[in-house]
Amino acid sequence: MAAPGLPTTTPATSSTRVDLAIQGIRLADAPVSRRAGAGPSDDGHLLLDGVGAAIPLNPRSPYTVQGGKLLLDGADTGMGVETITRPRFYDLNTADGVPYEKIARLHSARVLATTVVQTCVRYEESQRCRFCAIEESLRQGSTIAVKSPAQIAEVARAAYELDGITQMVMTTGTSNGRDRGAVHLARCTRAVREVLPDLPIQVQCEPPGDLAVIQDLYDAGARSIGIHVESLDDAVRRHWMPGKGAVPMEEYRAAWAEAVRVFGWNEVSTYLLVGLGEDPDEMIAGAEELIAMGVYPFVVPFRPLAGTLATDVDRVPSPDPRVVAKVTGRVAAALRSAGMLGSAQSAGCAACGACSALSCEGA
Ligand code: SF4
Question: Which Pfam families does UniProt cross-reference here (predicted)?
Answer without folding.
Answer: Radical_SAM (PF04055)
